[in-house]
Design a protein that fits this description.
The complex is a heterodimer of chains A (115) and B (112).
Chain A: E1 4-7, E2 10-13, E3 19-25, E4 31-37, E5 43-51, E6 54-57, E7 64-66, E8 76-78, E9 87-94, E10 105-106, E11 110-114
Parallel strand pairs in A: 2-11
Antiparallel strand pairs in A: 1-3, 3-8, 4-5, 4-9, 5-6, 7-8, 9-10, 9-11
Chain B: E1 4-5, E2 10-14, E3 19-25, E4 32-38, E5 45-51, E6 56-59, E7 62-67, E8 72-77, E9 86-93, E10 100-102, E11 106-111
Parallel strand pairs in B: 2-11
Antiparallel strand pairs in B: 1-3, 3-8, 4-5, 4-9, 6-7, 7-8, 9-10, 9-11
């Protein structure tokens, strides 16, 4: 089982460049999430989606955009990359709301450096 | 305020001994608490959870204790093994129930 797949695993961007982090899941999960993890910090929620066509901001959405055209895919777009966006990005999914003790399944992460 | 706090960045334990990882929270309305484990270059994976109506949940070597009056939970690993060396995150659903909020994590090192 593939689970949650993220691409690329590593990327170096120059300041001002843009890119899309890809995320796909094959578990037919309704909820999908993007988190970032900075050194010594926990995971911060960037955006989340409760189903195809529905997205909403998390704790740290500035500088990012998302879309959810299908159940499987939840790409994260960085426009005008800045050094503050250097981080490890994790995509995750769950079948339903975490309020019902639903587990989140994470991808292996994308290490992004903006120089 | 919806915070989950892990105040110990690291913990070192000898193989075979008990590891105790701690987590404090501020919102008494949390319904569930979860622990995730993360190895380097991998995503976090679910380890164990506990409902707010319980004070203990056990799964093999892992036990989570919840003290609601102190707004504190702890993860006990007995006996600790070198393969348990990882970062452990405490988490809880946000108030809207739309995502999990995470603590900063505790890095556990188990030496043989």
């Amino acid at each position: 089982n593939a689970g949650v797949t993220q691409t690329p695993k590593f990327r170096i961007l120059k300041i001002g460049q843009s890119m899309t982090l890809q995320c796909t899941q094959d578990m037919n999960h309704n909820y999908m999430y993007w988190y970032r993890q900075d050194p010594g910090m926990g995971l911060k929620l960037i955006y989340y989606s409760v189903g195809a066509g529905i997205t909403d901001k998390g704790e740290v959405p500035n500088g990012y955009n998302v879309s959810r055209s299908t159940t499987e895919d939840f790409p994260l777009r960085l426009e005008l990359a800045a050094p503050s966006q250097t981080s490890v990005y994790f995509c995750a999914s769950s079948y339903s709301s975490p309020m019902s003790n639903e587990k989140l399944f994470f991808g292996s992460g994308t290490q992004l450096s903006v120089l | 305020d919806q915070q989950v706090k892990q105040n110990s960045p690291s913990l070192s334990v000898q193989e075979g001994r008990i590891s105790i990882l701690n987590c404090d929270y501020t919102n008494s309305m949390f319904d569930y608490f979860l622990w995730y484990k993360k190895y380097p270059a991998e995503g976090p994976t679910f380890l164990i959870s506990i409902s707010s109506i319980k004070d203990k949940n056990e799964d093999g070597r892992f036990t989570v204790f919840l003290n609601k009056s102190a707004k504190h939970l702890s993860l006990h690993i007995v006996p600790s093994q070198p393969g348990d060396s990882a970062v452990y995150f405490c988490a809880a659903p946000n108030q809207a129930g739309t995502a999990l909020i995470f603590g900063k994590g505790t890095t556990l090192s188990v030496s043989s």
